[in-house]
Amino acid sequence: MTPSRDISRLIEIMAALRTPVTGCPWDLEQNFATIAPYTIEEAYEVADAITRGDLDDLREELGDLLLQVVYHARMAEEQNAFAFGDVVEAITGKLIRRHPHVFADRDGNIAPAGIKSAWERIKAEEKAERAARRPPEETAHRSLLATVKAGQPALTRAMELQRKASTVGFDWNDPRAVLHKIREEADEIEAALDNGKPDELAAETGDLLFALVNLARHVGADPETALRGTNAKFERRFAYIERVLAAKGRSLEDASLAEMDALWDEAKEAEQPAASAQSDRR
């Protein structure tokens, strides 16, 4: 096969990869659940390319994300559920339906406020239609948390779940109470370490992360933004360790943990004057 600008070639390649016996063993082993993490990862890489303003990289990452759509559609087609064309039809139908001011057979313009209200009304109608198609047992009880979107990153969704619960008073009034909960969760992780059960450790770690998100919410910090900042700080300080060792003709593998810790502290201390000066200028 040769590269092509036609989407049909990508669909053909995906079908070939998923063809039993002649296809790729790894691709044949995958299912919706195993591919889902890659789908999320590719969406983040698209966002990262946009943040960096790298349009060449954005082109590549959009292709990777498109592959994820084709991959899921192919697996669904194998189960006689739907195909790629059905995905395209669904989204084109939705866009036409939600933009009557653009695609309707009539003259005249709608003010921006009217466009937004029409969009919300149509979305509500679509949601009601989907709910009507669900089995009665799924719609018997409408949870307060049902409006929190399931497809969000875990940190963001944790924040939204907590905010929604807080609207009915299910919340702490003092960040220090959340801090107490964090210590409690850390103690439970320590107990789980003694038990040595991986599932229990994973669950308790999740509880700790949820409590940390709650603390971020109470102190007015966005957890995703805060973690991105810490990631950048970690990369910056680790790069300092690499540079200093390289200047001495040494590699990371040659250094002891104690040496790397000492260099980490040096990098941390070097950042303090800059932070203080910036604070003074304010």
UniProtKB/TrEMBL annotation:
Is Hydrolase among the key words of this record? yes
**Gene3D superfamilies with a match to the protein in the record:** MazG-like
The family database entries (InterPro entries) matched by this protein are listed as: MazG-like_dom (IPR004518), NTP-PPase_MazG-like_C (IPR048011), NTP-PPase_MazG-like_N (IPR048015), NTP_PyrPHydrolase_MazG (IPR011551)
According to the entry, every stretch annotated as the NTP pyrophosphohydrolase MazG-like domain falls at 30-103, 176-237
Report the EC code(s) recorded for this entry. 3.6.1.8
What reaction does this catalyse? Answer: ATP + H2O = AMP + diphosphate + H(+)
Q: In Gene Ontology terms, what is one molecular function of this protein? A: ATP diphosphatase activity
What's any GO biological process attached to this entry?
dTTP catabolic process
Q: Which UniProt keywords apply?
A: Hydrolase
Q: Which family does it belong to?
A: Belongs to the nucleoside triphosphate pyrophosphohydrolase family.
* The name this protein goes by in its record: Nucleoside triphosphate pyrophosphohydrolase
Give the lineage.
Answer: Bacteria, Pseudomonadati, Pseudomonadota, Alphaproteobacteria, Hyphomicrobiales
